[in-house]
Amino acid sequence: MIVRIGAWDLAVLAFYLLVVFGIGIALSRRASKSTEEFFVSGRSLPWWIVGTSMVATTFAADTPLVVSGLVAKGGIFNNWLWWYWGIGGVVAVFLFSHLWRRTGITTDAELIELRYDGKPAAVLRGYRAIWFGLFQNVLIIAWVMKAMAKIIIVVMGWNESVTVLGINAEVFTVLVLFAIAVSYTALSGLWGVVMTDALQFVLATGGALYLAVASFARVGGIAGIKAHIAANGFDVRETLRIIPRVATLSEANPFTEFLILITIVWWASYNIDGGGYLAQRLFAAKNERHSVFGYMWFGFAHICVRPWPWIVVGLCGMAMFGKIEDPETYYPMMMRTILPPGIFGLVIASFFAAFMSTVDTQLNWGSSLLVNDLYRRLLRKGKSEREYLVAARISVIVLAVFGALASFAVRDISFAWKLIISVTAGIGSVYIARWYWWRVNAWSEISAMGAALGCTLVLGVLSSMPQFGNRAIVRFPFSTAVTVLISVPIWIAVTLLTRPVGKDHLLHFYRRVRPGGPGWKALASDIPDFREHRLGTATLFKVIAGMIVINAALIGTGNLVLGRLLQGALLLAAALVAGFVLLALMRRESL
Fold first, then answer.
1. Which of 365, 400, 418 lies at the terminal end of a domain, its last residue?
2. Number of Cα atoms under 13 Å in the Cβ half of residue 453
3. Chain segment 30-88, per-residue pLDDT in tens
4. 533 CB burial (10 A radius; 0-12, 13-18, 19+)
5. Which residues are within 8 A (CB) of 18 and not within 5 positions of it... i.e. 6 or more apart?
6. 134 backbone dihedrals φ, ψ, rounded to 5°
7. Are 433 and 487 part of one and the same domain?
8. Is residue 130 domain-shared with residue 170, that is, in the same domain?
9. What's the pLDDT tens digit per position in 304-316?
């Protein structure tokens, strides 16, 4: 049955948009009180809003498409491209989330001049605001818009020759999405973003779960999936592997890629300490405890709750449609084929929710960097809050325009994911060290970013040459490992060869943030309560327990879905036991 969008579907979509805009209008006055209300919700959010907003933000319209596409391109194990975050995310919960809240800042770029001093710090802060707030932000907005355009074009049954109101269908779709994102975000700031995120998370997750169950039933369960994908020419055993088959370490293969992701990429990536739009949520938390529990809920839901419905839909798409040119369209094809009227509109609304919860975050976060770290700091110091709020809303519009235009250049969404990881490879090691080693300075970050960018460009050029293009060293994720091996020694050497941050500046940072750890021992004589700030073995146990919870729950759930009941039950039991241990440790130390 091929479903076309009908009256009931349009009614569901209209009702959803009315609710969302109603929330935006209701919160617009509160968001207009100050830039602190607009960008960090007055630092008053409870943990469940903090974590749910993070989850909703990372569930974009592109995510189900990429996940189902990755399965079709080689197997379920290809999703370790983002599952590796189940390691780094737990580290961020217990080593960084409370520290971000203690800073009392508005953007992660502001941390630069809180942690470092001098002109290098001032330049680095401006560069980060431009790079992350404008360039990387626009790329993310572009691929999310591209994904939403793909979904609508497929479910509507359009092709390149179709026009709407005299405009190419894809162009028309992006323009509509542009208008939705801009008006909603400019109205309500982070207040509207986080409050609608809770609704959007429930709707998006519920829609994905319904589609997965309906698709699973249509193809005859796991037995039907195996039979159909085998008939369509896929390797059943490899497709259904959650962890790639163990292979030789001396050559490039899925197993060595997996090892690189879980041993190197997780700590070398730029988001290891929870910066960016995730840190923005931590700034907005009520207190440190709410920031820790919010980040923990985010990590569990991000890795364990969401992926399997998408994977099931991808497998069902492979079973029903066979091999196709763009496997990222399996997801919308299943939507159009499986869902009945009304439910079809609800799932479309869930994609609008996923789309809006990501784009509104990127627009608000990007605006916070451009206004707080450039406009307010360099161009218009000491002006009224009213002026800064006007600048914030204008910058939202500018970012949306650039994102909409850039979306036409994006073709492979997973390639954009890999590009972001590659360009920032190795920076994560600096981001860890800046909290826990006094000697790190602004030049450490500058050199790490420069080395990562240079390596990405060189390896990209080499990959286009016939004599190098087939070598693993220039292909992702092996290229990322090469970048890390080059960038880490460079930033450490630069750190030791350049002037350290002034002692008074370091003490001001330490007393405000209180990170603790042996890396600050050189200043211990000037910090009377230094011994009270030790990390301790309890932190290590919490990290280990958290990793067991997330990864055992992820793989255990997958085994149940794939019919491996005993393995799944044992892993889920291990996750449950580790969860009780983790909560006991957190209760014992009040975090």
1. 418
2. 8
3. 777 778 788 888 888 999 999 999 988 887 777 788 888 889 888 999 999 889 888 88
4. middle
5. none
6. -110, -65
7. yes
8. yes
9. 988 999 999 999 9
Q: State the residue for tokens 């990322």.
A: 480
Question: What range defines the domain where residue 547 resides?
Answer: 535-591
546-580: b or e for each residue (b if 16 or more CB lie within 10 Å)? bbbbbbbbbbbbbbbbbebeeebeebbebbeebbe
User: Based on the domain organization, do 249 and 158 belong to the same domain?
Assistant: yes
d(CA 31, CA 453): 37
Whether 14 is covered by a domain: the verdict is no
> In this structure, are 401 and 295 located in the same domain?
yes
> What is the tens place of the pLDDT at every residue in 437-495?
999 999 999 999 889 888 888 877 776 666 555 666 666 667 778 888 899 999 999 99
Give the number of other Cβ atoms within 10 Å of residue 56's Cβ: 30
Compute how many other C-beta atoms are within 10 angstroms of the C-beta atom of residue 78.
23
* Average pLDDT rounded to a whole number, residues 576-585: 92
Task: Determine the residue type at 435.
Answer: W
* Dist CA 455 CA 448 (whole Å): 11
Mean pLDDT of 501-525: 92
Between 2-6, 256-260, 345-349, 559-563, the lowest mean confidence (pLDDT) is in 2-6
Q: pTM for this one?
A: 0.86
Same domain, 170 and 77: yes
CB 83 within 8 A of CB 258: no
3-state secondary structure of 233: coil
- Flag whether 198 is in a domain: yes
Rg (CA), the chain: 24
pLDDT given at position 3: 45
3-class DSSP state of 391: helix
> 339: domain CATH number?
1.20.1730.10
- Reading the block at residue 395, the tokens are 């910058």
Residue with tokens 């990881």: 421
Q: What is the 3-state secondary structure (H, E, C) of 156-187?
A: HCCCCCCEECCEEHHHHHHHHHHHHHHHHHHH
Tokens of 468: 């190098």
Rounded CA-CA distance 497/126 in Å is 23
Q: Same domain, yes or no, for 438 and 566?
A: no
Q: Is 232 helix (H, G, I), strand (E, B) or coil?
A: coil
pLDDT confidence tier of residue 531, bands split at 50, 70 and 90: confident
Counting the structural domains of the chain, the total is: 3
In a domain, 183, yes or no: yes
User: How far apart, in whole angstroms, are the C-alpha atoms of residue 566 and residue 563?
Assistant: 9
Q: Which residue has the higher pLDDT, 112 or 256?
A: 112
Q: Are residue 198 and residue 68 in the same domain, yes or no?
A: yes
Residue that is last in its domain, among 380, 397, 418: 418
* The pLDDT of residue 415: 62
Query: Which residues partner with 168 through β-bridges?
Result: 163
Interatomic CA distance for residues 539 and 581, integer angstroms: 12
Q: Which of 510, 455, 462, 460 is nearest to 484 (CA)?
A: 455
Regarding whether 243 and 117 lie in a shared domain, the answer is yes
Does residue 3 lie within any of the structural domains? no
Residue 572 vs residues 165, 293, 552, 560: alpha-carbon distances, Å: 53, 21, 6, 10
